[in-house]
Amino acid sequence: MTAAAQLLESPQPNHHLVQLYAEPDELLTVNVARYVGEGLRQGDTVLVIATAAHLEHFLRKLDLDGACPTEALRQAQLSVLDAEATLNKFMVDGLPDWRRFELSVGSSVARLRARAGNGSVRAYGEMVGLLWSAGQRDAAIMLESYWNRLLGSQSFSLYCAYPIDIFGHDFQVATVDAIFCAHSHLLPSGPQVEAALERAMKDVLGPRLEGLRPLIKANYRPTWATLPPVEAVILWLRNNLRGSADEILTRAGRYYRSSSLPRSTYGEMLDANGHGR
Amino acid sequence: MPTDMAGELGWLRALIEQVRDHAIFTIGPDGRNRTWSEGVHQVVGYTEAEFVGQHASELFTPEDRSAGVPERELAFAAEHGSASDERWLVRKDGTRFWASGMTTRINDARGDLMAFAKIFRDLTVEKQFHDDLRGSEERYRLATGAAHEAIWDRDLNTSTMTWSDNFEQLFGYPPQDVGLDVAWWEQRIHPEDRVRVTNSLREAVANGASRWEADYRLRHRSGRYALVEDRAYIMRSTDGTPLRMLGAMAEVTERRRAEEGRRHAQRLEALGRLAGGVAHELNNMLTAIIGNTAYLDKSLSAGDERRDFTRSVLKSAERSAKLTRQLLAFAQRQMTQPVQLDLNTLVREMEPILQPLLGHRIALDLRLAPQIGAVLADRTHVEQVVVNLLLNARDAMPVGGRVTLETQPVHFDGSASDGSSSLIEPGNYVLLAVSDTGTGMDAGTLERAFEPFFTTKPFGEGTGLGLAAVYGAVKQQGGYVWAYSEPGCGTVVKVYFRQAAT
Fold first, then answer.
1. Which fold has domain A3-163?
2. Residue in A closest to B354 by C-alpha
């Protein structure tokens, strides 16, 4: 089992995972269904805070995977909340308010914690993603810090999702470093991305690529969060090969989207020291 | 007397002697009995020796004698040729009987009064019948005035039925729509009850019974079936021939529902105690199993193959623990964190995620009354209730339909006599009702809908703990829950949460 699969299936308490995705959200659906479905199978109590559109995809995928989401909903083993409605409960003047956050989301987690008994609690949330999409990036990062406060006081794992296209301009260190710093693991975008990136790099860099490989591997931008190698390479390209990065990543994005390979996540991850995990 | 006349009289006498149920005798102009027949003995008990010569007025009651009735009767017969009457007479043993008779003047050859011929018979039974009938008719009149019973009268010879005016008020059929034949009534009996009811009535009539009763469902003009209690007298002639039936029919749907609700609640309570007790004990044992296995698991090195076994034990134990938690939910032994909740706000916050739960083929209609007041309840429990009820509605509408979620404040003052609401403790409540346009449930399914592990879904598709969890969650909040359903008519589940003190 890959490290990413291990993270999704058996996250440790206080793990704070993050997933970047671009619509259509097939990869996100696959990963969330795995995280939630495996939790249900293991007897964990699960909280999903999502948009209605995503929730529908998740429930359908969970159903297809045989995770019986309906039965879990009936038993309150699975609780679902609307991301926007939940967000509205604690946002004050464009920023999250800790006291209100604790009262709403904190209470929800505490109730699930109480119901879980000996089992674990895992949560999935898209509120930060909504804030990010709305351009309220400071608010999103502040909300992440609130989640981390909760993770420090209550035993549960958390999985966040941001609508950030890793081939787009937003995916560069200056923009996403704060996100990575708020999480314990960035989930990989999958081998399809790796294949698309490799092909695009070969297209654009040609013979130079082999010469650059050691540099890329040695100088990827580490943060204290765990990054998958592909995302690390992209960040390196954005940071160190600005002249070619746009063309490489545009091509890579095109290759990825036209790929007929099924989307899945089980790529390798590198820890902060660049070692495979 | 000519021989042939004498012979004829002899034949007549022989005939009279054969008549046992009529007293036939003659009375002289002096009012004394002159002759006797066996019928006299059978009807009033006198022997010939006792009877002949006795004053005919002895057969009358003292009050009639005092009033001069015997004399008046003879005088009337003497004057008009005959006198017929029905009145109480007295037997030799002093008992009274209701007699119907006739006194006829007998003339001699000259046309002068020679005697009176008197014939009467005991009609006490018939009188009782008529008294009963009058009593019934009295009851009919009384009952017709009572709003809750429809009175019917069935002629067993013609198979016609008539109904009291309030039949329209009770069952919706205006008089012009009510058929006079029995078939009209029979056609409105629920198909599942029809044979039982008509057979029992036929048997009661055929077997000489004086009463008939049956409980069944009768179709209201609106299409719904009302549960009715039907009770009737069967009127018969003296020889037992059935003549009429006079019945009173009352709708008892709500009363039965209340009785059923009470009985059902007691049964679920007993089930809850059992489930709770078992789950509690099981939970204690599972805690030990999980704790010790986890300890054992941690003590094994990462590559130790025996960890597969410990993981397997842990997984099974966790699943068992999950099951016990569900049972504890039904047994109302969950941890609760009651807070003041506005159900309208909660529903509105849930609204965006409710549609994905229902799917595209089902429309969600929210009817939230303003100012419903807060309830004191555990938020997770209430969310679980809403989700369960909506998922049930969804499952009942495989080809789509409409779900209506409604809230409204309700006050019960303890005076309710209608159905389930009579079981609710007085006070202020907030009603959360979820209704669907789905397949509905038959009575048997509805009866067991809240029981743990009861499911109509195919094996493996449902644990049957959904509505059980709703029941447990609602009861634990001090609320009440009822489901109403009929096949093809959808289902409505009403949950009453206690309003929080302000």
1. Rossmann fold (3.40.50)
2. A52
